What we know:
Blueprint: H1 5-8, E1 11-14, H2 30-35, H3 37-43, E2 47-50, E3 54-55, E4 67-71, H4 78-90, E5 94-99, H5 109-116, E6 128-129, E7 149-152, E8 157-160, H6 175-191, E9 195-198, H7 222-233, E10 241-245, H8 251-258, E11 267-269, H9 292-306, E12 311-314, H10 324-327, H11 336-348, E13 353-357, H12 379-391, H13 397-407, H14 446-451, H15 456-469, H16 471-475, E14 477-481, E15 488-495, E16 498-505, E17 511-512, E18 521-525, E19 534-535, E20 540-544
Parallel strand pairs: 1-2, 1-13, 2-5, 5-9, 9-10, 10-11, 11-12, 12-13
Antiparallel strand pairs: 3-4, 6-8, 7-8, 14-15, 15-16, 16-20, 17-19, 18-20
The protein binds 1-O-alpha-D-glucopyranosyl-D-fructose and calcium ion.
Amino acid sequence: MAKAWWKEAVVYQVYPRSFQDSNGDGIGDLRGIRDRLDYIKQLGATVIWLNPIYASPNDDNGYDISDYQAIQPDFGTMAEFDQLLEAAHARGLKIVMDLVVNHTSDEHHWFIESLKSKDNPYSDYYLWADPVDGHAPNDWESSFSGSAWQYAPERQQYYLHLFSKKQPDLNWREPAVRHSVYDLMRFWLDKGIDGFRMDVINFIGKPATFDNDSPSPINMPQVQDYLKEMNREVLSHYDVMTVGEMPGTTPALAREYTGFDTHELNMIFQFQHTGVDLDQKFGKWVHHPFKLTTLKKIMDRWQVGLDGKAWNSLYWNNHDQPRVVSRFGNDSPEFRERSAKMLGAVLHYQQGTPYIYQGEELGMTNNAGFTKLSDYRDIESLNGYREWVDEKGELTPEQMLAGLQVASRDNARTPMQWGTKPNAGFCPAGVTPWIMVNPNYVTINADQEVRDQNSVFNFYRQMNLLRAANPIITYGDFTPLAEDDEEVWAYQRHYEGQTLTLVANWTARDLKRACAATAGELLQSNYPDDLGETLRPYEVKVYLQ
Ligand code: TEU
Ligand code: CA
């Protein structure tokens, strides 16, 4: 398999709002990120992905962009961005930016113009449709509750918004839209950034007309034409990495979007594994226990299905997902660290580029103490409550609040826990952060974990060092083991005559398994010794032979 720097990368995701406040307004900022670059370097990550930092009215925390070539004032200035990029590059760290071009903010000047009339240069920049019998053209729903159509009296038409009504969808059929996007991409690439994470990029294809028989606007064939054009026009002229965020994809689709010879993207974020515990009807607001075999089968299909043909991204967490140690591990004081390390190893020793979401390397948890609706900030959570409790009345306030505690995106958005100072060192004492700090910062924080050789942080650091030293971790192929086991996750990797074996106990009990027997040199484990076939609670062992 051809080598590439983005295959060997370890990406650290920074959610700028919640990373480090440098000027005492309770909001993380670019200076704050710059001040913490050495921490990211020490962890052994090689690439930083920044969530959107562009000018935005903040209806969806920056995913509603009003100017792609300006910095959100809360975060700083363009000069500070340039300094951040330079400081990162000086440390050998690359920076990947979020590219949000399925939609803009309704306050972007393209939309302001588009709204004015049906015959101006921006009229067709968005997806406008005439009312049908006084109603929206079809029954599509927004990801953030309610209809995906909003009536605009100015044009006496509806516009499409697959997310908030302040996030109108762009019309990619219009060449001027595509070329405007390519221009803004070049603006950032010419500054020297190292790639893009592309927001819901498989949603950009849309049907030419809208009615109730319109095909789903996800994974339409046009998406591939647009991505090939984008690659030809822009990406192929730079040495950058690309990762497309793509809900609703399968390994077969991923082979098309990211195949080594298809000239679209390097890798995608898929969502099959993050769907295992969701409800058919209520989605993320009602959680179900899931079988380990279901989760393993999904991951195995991606591993085997892409091997040699396309490239996987590996993630448990991001700014949209609840904290993995609370979701798939065990966040009780007894098992939090062990299970956080086990989850990290199970993910990072698979084939693909791993993504670490800020705080994951500390084993940060859900449940910051959000008990009432006003503790939440996220539009998806607030709209979800309105839909299921206030409008449909199908969940009680207690049920919905319980659902939010488990699944709200705000679980991942609480401030980074740097130390034991008030506000966890995220912002100065006496300042109210934009969202609550998890009170467990007193025991879970970076200062302590960096010093403690047995911490989750140092386990992640060790994984990154081992990856850099052992090409089998990046390039080895993948064979699942113990596929029908409901308690143990095990697999092997092979590369140039070497075999790497991982065995992990997903339970809080001792287990005995033949596949856990010593298999070469113990490369990494979350216990100080090796009991062979006996696996202790959440034990993970990685052997190299
Ligand atoms: O998310 C897209 C997406 O489909 C989901 O993960 C969604 O955010 C939600 O959690 C479904 O329950 C991307 C961004 O990552 C997200 O933060 C934005 O809100 C969204 O696009 C719109 O730009
Ligand atoms: Ca600030």
